[in-house]
Amino acid sequence: MSGLPPCPQCGSVYTYEDGEMFVCPECAHEWSKSAVVDENEQKRVVHDANGNVLNDGDTVTVIKDLKIKGSSSVVKVGTKVKNIRLVDGDHDIDCKIDGVGAMSLKSEFVKKI
């Protein structure tokens, strides 16, 4: 056809556009164009210092002493960080470190356990 996506319900290639919607003439399924864009977005993959893929909820270990900005405290090598959360940005890990509190880390300074 003309590059339109197939029907997600029945797989028919005979879909057509109707305003802001795609319609399947075979099963009468309708879906929005934004749903197709969301499916095509690439999910960002975050790697640790060793190249392992990180996921939400993983436990990691700090591989370098990290100075805490605005404080005289330091996160020491070998500090275990549980239940990380991946976020977009330069510091791509949000976590809570025992004795320090909530902070953001760069994935290049941690390794997955």
TrEMBL record:
Residue ranges occupied by any Protein YjdM C-terminal domain in the UniProt entry: 46-112
Q: Which InterPro entries match?
A: YjdM, YjdM_C, YjdM_N
Q: Which Gene3D superfamilies match?
A: 2.20.25.10, SH3 Domains
Plastid recorded as keyword = no
> Domain named Protein YjdM N-terminal: which ranges?
4-32
Transmembrane regions listed in the UniProt entry: none
Q: What are the alphabetically sorted keywords of the record?
A: Hydrolase
Molecular function in Gene Ontology: hydrolase activity
What family does this chain come from, according to its entry?
Belongs to the YjdM family.
Q: Which NCBIfam families match?
A: phnA (TIGR00686)
What is the protein's given name?
Answer: Phosphonoacetate hydrolase
- Organism of origin is Sulfuriferula nivalis
